[in-house]
Amino acid sequence: MIGRMNRIDSPHAARRARLAAQLGAGGIAIIPTAPVQPRNRDSDFPYRPDSYFFYLTGFDEPDAWLVLTADGRSLLFCQPKDAEREIWDGYRLGPEAAPAALSVDGAHSVVEIDALLPRLLENTRTVWYPFATHPGLESRIDGWLQKVRARVRYGALAPDGQRDACALLDEMRLVKDAHELGVMRRAGQISARGHIRAMQRSSAMLRAGQDVREYHLEAELLHEFRQHGSQAPAYTSIVAAGANACVLHYRAGAAPIKDGELVLIDAACELDGYASDITRTFPANGRFSGPQRTLYELVAASQDAAVAATRPGARFNDPHEAAVKVLAQGMLDTGLLDRNKVGGLDDVIEKRAYFPFYMHRTSHWMGMDVHDCGSYVEPAEVGQVSERRDPLTGELIKDRPSRILRPGMVLTIEPGLYVRPAEGVPEAFWHIGIRIEDDAVVTESGCELLTRGVPVAVDEIEALMRA
Ligand code: GLY
Ligand code: MN
Ligand code: MN
After folding, report:
1. Quick check: is 418 catalytic?
2. What are the backbone dihedrals phi and psi of residue 434, each rounded to the nearest 5 degrees, phi first?
3. Residues 89 and 191 in one domain
4. Which residues surround ligand 3, an ion (CB under 5 A)?
5. Is residue 4 part of a domain?
6. Which residues have CB under 8 Å from 1's CB, separation 6+?
7. Which domain holds residue 246?
8. Which residues of the chain are modeled with pLDDT < 50?
C-alpha cells in the first residue's frame, strides 16, 4: 500500500478547480482510481492508485471515484467504513470523514455509485472520463447513461457528448506545479543516494575479494529508497553487469559483477506518487579502463550538449538532436563507424548510421508516471505535417513540430552507447554499454537537474568509489 498522504488539501483542490473550469457548460467528469491487481492466490500486487485520480485527490484507497462538475463541485465515492474489513485490510477513511480530509464537497459509499451516478448525469451535457485506460469503464458509463435515457419521458435531459478527460489532464500534468516539483526534487535526491550506495558497495566487495552479484547492488538501491520513505521503485530496476548493459530492458538478475567490467544501473524511486529516473554507468572496481573512459566521456559530452539544449522555447527534439550530433561525431572519431563507409557527420545523421550504437530516444516526459503523459507535438502546430522516408526501414514517417519546452515541464536526458561485437567494430569496445540519465525540469532560463546528487564526471565517480 502506498503511504498515506497528509498533504491532501490545497494542491489537489486547486487542480480540481482548474479541471472543472475546462469542462464547459453542463460538463461532468468521472475519474476512477485503479483496481487492486491480484498477483496469485490470496495475494495482491502492492496497491498504487491511478495517477489521474491521485493527481486530483491525493487519496490512495482503492475502490474510489471522483465526480466533478463544471460548477466546481466535487464528489467522492469511497469504500464505506467496515469494522471487520478494517481488521484485515486496514483503516478506511470512509465517506463521513472524506469531505474534511480531502476538501471535497461531498462523499458517498462506493456501494451507492450505480444508484447515484445516473441521477448525477441527468441534465448534464458532456461526460468526460479517461478513454481507454480502465477496462470496462466505457460499458459502466453506458449503463448509467441508459438509466438516464429511461427517465427522459419524465423530462430529464441526457448528455449528448462524451469527451476524453485525458486530453485535459495530460496537459495539466505536463507542467508541474510547485508541490509536484518539491516531491520530484526529493525523489531525485533519494534515488541519487541509492546510486552512490550501490557504486560504493561494488568496489568495496571487489576489494574484499567477494563474489559480487547484480542483486547485491539492487539491494543497496532498495534499502536507500525505503530508508528515506519511498514507497516503491518507480520502475523495475536495471542492474546490468558487463555485456548485459547492451540489453536495453535487462532486469537486475544474479549475474556476477567482475573486476574490470562496467555496471549500468537504471533505477530510481517513486515518492508520494512521483517518479524519478536515473541511470549511471561505472567501473565495478572503481577505475575506468582506457576504452571504457573514452566511450564514457563521449556519452557524458553528449549529455552535456543535450542539457545545454534544454531550455524554454526550445523544442522537445532539440536535446535529442544535440546528443546525436556529439555521439555521431564521437563514433567517427573512435572508429566505431568507418568514415570510408558511412561518410561524414552529416551523412551519419541523415542516414541514421549511428543507430546500431544508439537506438533509443534521449528524452521522455516524467512525473507521476516514469514515462509521463503529455503530447510530444506542439498543440498549436498539429496540422503542420511533413512526410519523409526512414533511411533505415523505408517506412513513411509523418513528422509534426515537436513540443515547445516551457518552465515546469520535466523530461529525462539519457543518451547512451551500446557496442555489441561486430565486424569492423574495434574489439576494445565490445560489450560496453553506457547510459547516463538525469531528470531535468525546464526553468525560466534553462533547466535544473534534479538527480545530480550522484555525480557523472569520471574523476568524481572514481573518488567516491575509493571512499
Ligand atoms: N527507466 C526507464 C527509462 O529510462 O525510460
Ligand atoms: Mn528514462
Ligand atoms: Mn531510466
Report:
1. yes
2. -135, 135
3. no
4. 266, 277, 437
5. no
6. 46, 47, 60, 90
7. 178-466
8. 1-9
